[in-house]
Write a structure and sequence with these properties.
The protein is of the alpha/beta class. The chain has eight helices and eleven strands.
Length: 272
């Protein structure tokens, strides 16, 4: 199992933990399936009224799709299979509030989860970045999701700068991606406290409010998502060329164990 779930029935809060710290909680097909199954199960668990999602270890919340995962793709540019499209709570029709608690790196496909959380709590160690363009991949779903949280210029900068720049927790707070910054190691506790408060309120009122908030965003997101597969298929380099770029950057000076779209850190990134 690459996912841990813990239900606190006394408070009505569940914690979902990505549990692949050796891979910086990158998501393979097994993890993607477990996430979808967990959200679907929580739809029917009336003892759970609010949830927190986090990552195991101290180095990463999630670093996107595991680069060792092979996802067969149809030949047509009009059809693209993306296993991350089904890992979020809203994609699985779960309308109970979900809070993301982030420490360490959150990059690439992590935004599928952050984008479907009600809000994000991060500790001071958290950093956010989008490595797609660095490796010859179109970043489409990630900026679409983040454009619902951050000013469009900040989204564009993050998506276009790739691995060259990482957004600090403080900057993420200033731009609206993060709603609270905590001391190192305290994001989960802060997320749990928020979840406990929300879970103590009448369920119908809470879930109705969640739906109302998302109703304000869904129309624009649906139109943008419809374009994303074609942009990715037409603008991304072939997978073998992506792999070459990825391997070259990992083997460069100063590289080491870490992650960026499920791999290693860029040796020359800047923080802001």
């Amino acid at each position: 199992m690459s996912l841990r779930t813990e239900v606190h029935k006394d408070t009505g809060v569940a914690v979902v933990t990505l549990d692949r710290p050796s891979r910086h909680n990158a998501i393979d097909l097994e993890t993607a399936g477990e996430l979808a199954a967990s959200w679907q199960e929580f739809r029917f668990d009336d003892s759970v009224r609010a949830l927190v999602i986090t990552g195991a270890g101290t180095k990463a919340f999630c670093t996107g799709i595991d680069r060792s995962t092979e996802v067969p793709q149809p030949a047509s540019p009009y059809s693209t299979d993306d296993p991350l499209l089904t890992i979020g709570p809203k994609a699985n029709d779960l309308w109970k509030p979900v809070i993301a608690a982030v420490n360490g790196m959150a990059c690439g496909g992590a935004f599928y989860l952050l984008g479907e959380a009600e809000f994000v709590v991060a500790d001071e160690t958290a950093t956010f970045f989008d490595p797609h363009t660095t490796y010859g991949m179109v970043s489409a779903y990630e900026p679409i999701l983040m454009a619902q949280r951050m000013p469009i210029g900040e989204v564009a900068r993050m998506a276009l700068m790739g691995t060259a720049e990482r957004i600090s927790a403080r900057r993420a707070y200033e731009t609206g991606l993060v709603s609270q910054v905590t001391a190192p190691g305290e994001a989960l506790d802060a997320g749990l406290e928020c979840a406990r408060v929300i879970a103590s309120y009448p369920t119908e009122a809470v879930q109705g409010t969640v739906r109302a908030v998302w109703a304000a965003k869904e129309a624009a997101r649906a139109h943008a998502f419809a374009q994303a597969p074609h942009l990715i298929a037409l603008g991304s380099l072939p997978p073998e060329r992506q792999a070459e770029l990825f391997a070259a950057r990992r083997s460069g000076p100063g590289s080491g164990s870490g992650a960026g779209a499920g791999g290693g850190p860029d040796p020359g990134h800047r923080f802001r």
